[in-house]
Amino acid sequence: MCKVACIGTSRALVVTLLVGILMSVTAPRAEAARAFFVFGDSLVDSGNNNYLATTARADSPPYGIDYPTHRPTGRFSNGFNIPDIISEKIGSEPTLPYLSPELTGQRLLVGANFASAGIGILNDTGIQFVNIIRIARQLQLFQQYQQRLGALIGPAQARQRVNQALVLITLGGNDWVNNYFLTPISARSRQFTIPEYSRYIISEYQKVLRRLYELGARRVLVTGTGPLGCVPAELAMTGSRNGECAPRLQQAAAIFNPELVQMLKELNREIGSDVFIAANAFRMNMDFINNPTKFGFVTSKVACCGQGPYNGLGLCNVASNLCPDRKVYAFWDPFHPSERANRLIVEQILSGSTQYMSPMNLSTIMALDSRT
């Protein structure tokens, strides 16, 4: 029989187990969670434009008023944006802007946000903002990121981490709002009818997505445009009398979004796998725009921050009208949803039916991928 020796061994075993448990609990989530990469425009930009000489910035109050720090971060939101909330739901840290000097070392394992406010599918979209990270450049930075990650963990492991990552891309809205409809008679509107322009930008978008696949992306959430004619900015600029959405912009979204879904289906068939997942942002937004009280909003027409009709004119800044309770406004500023609206959108991304997510929602994707 052993007494003292066995007690000592047992204690050592217990201590070892406790240390192991504590290490697993306190270890950085980056190790366990899949990486997350974000591409696109202001709907998903987490602050890259803070580092650029551009007018497309959200780095001054009252932006960020409901963010944990209560300070502007570069997000076009009163608080969290869609990538933040997706990160929260998949158990990962928020992705840092790629241009952030904090994105070094182990933080690279979390992923990166390459999005830049003002950009579109086309290079001539958002030219009025001058210095923004256009989508071709975002993809170049993604290559650069992979080289940095490879130097940290080795090329093979870096490739695997990218292959297993979740990717979000949000493009298209600016190609309409800040290009085709930028002026009453724009260069693009003289060149194309609305259906012709939609087909053109879809064909260009397909090239972007093919390149993303070539760079290793294997699970890509692709959001369509929201209801472009229903944002407070368009209600104000088109002189909407009773909050009716601008018909030509709505027509554009109604043509573009189904064509995007069809293009993604064709890409998936070509690849032989459900790489690209379509998120019906139009329907997600229209749910609370059409019936705001059902979702706890007092209005889906008036922005929380802005000026003029519907608070839809000019920029959101310290001189703007500012609502006291952001939770009851569907729109934060003239163009962007509030954090609470973003949370409703992410709920549908996570668990929405095939009316919202095609061919499957994010929860289903996560469950399938966990088995492989």
UniProtKB/TrEMBL annotation:
Keyword annotations from UniProtKB, A to Z: Hydrolase, Lipid degradation, Lipid metabolism, Signal
InterPro entries noted in UniProt: GDSL (IPR001087), GDSL_Est/Lipase (IPR051058), SGNH_hydro_sf (IPR036514), SGNH_plant_lipase-like (IPR035669)
Protein species of origin: Rhodamnia argentea
Lipid metabolism listed as a keyword: yes
Single GO MF annotation: hydrolase activity, acting on ester bonds
Record's protein name: GDSL esterase/lipase At4g28780-like isoform X1
Family to which the UniProt record says this protein belongs: Belongs to the 'GDSL' lipolytic enzyme family.
Source organism superkingdom: Eukaryota
Gene3D superfamilies for the chain: SGNH hydrolase
UniProt key word Ubl conjugation: no
GO BP term, example: lipid catabolic process
Signal peptide: 1-32
